[in-house]
Amino acid sequence: MRRKLVADVSHDLRTPIASLRLLVEAVDDEVVDEETRRRYLATMRTHISSLSTMIDDLFELSRLEAGEIDWSMRQVELALLVDETVAAMRPEARARHVDLTAQLGDEPLSAHADPERIQRVLFNLIRNAIHHTPADGSVTVRAEAGPDAIEVEVADTGEGIPAADRSAVFEPFNRGADSARSGDGAGLGLAISRAIVETHGGRIWIAPAETGTRVRFSLPVR
Ligand SMILES: Nc1ncnc2c1ncn2[C@@H]1O[C@H](COP(=O)(O)OP(=O)(O)O)[C@@H](O)[C@H]1O
Ligand SMILES: [Mg+2]
Question: N or C: which end of the chain has fewer CB within 10 A?
């Protein structure tokens, strides 16, 4: 495995583990009252779930990069897949007061793809967009057919990605200006999405935007 990746993984594991160690000691301390103990336990659960997401994502990324995944490729109607994914994520958007919509024409958008994996890409991009968009903002998913490829776009009205970071965000563990944060994501979502799209023979990139972020990807029609 690449040296930098190992260093990043070690760093990202160390922080929540150090925190878990302290929390275990605190819970073990007899003077801690019941309510505090419960709070500590909730924090421990959060750390454990982010650690396990990170391990799952790392495993997925390494299998993708090693070509160890069985693909179920077929002709997929992307408009349906987009509609379905947007509907599934609407509650998450609504909880953050973000308006999530799909804008699709009437043309068929058939691509040669593995529907589950492409849904995973859509899910990653939409989740990022929702999480980087302040309340009352919007996230719009568009898809259109070109001559050889379908292009899908997830656009949001959030803070955007500085031009200098537009290719780096696809590298594993790159969290841009958020890198100090110990929140939900480990910075693997876009790396996984890129590996999936490129295995399909497509491309993924950050398109220029006046405000917010536009992430686009292409998929071959057949
Ligand atoms: N829609 C977006 N708006 C602003 N920044 C974004 C957006 N999507 C991704 N990013 C930036 O790219 C980084 C990498 O994204 P990702 O690989 O999904 O990792 P994670 O979501 O775990 O941080 C994010 O940490 C963030 O800095
Ligand atoms: Mg993400």
Answer: C
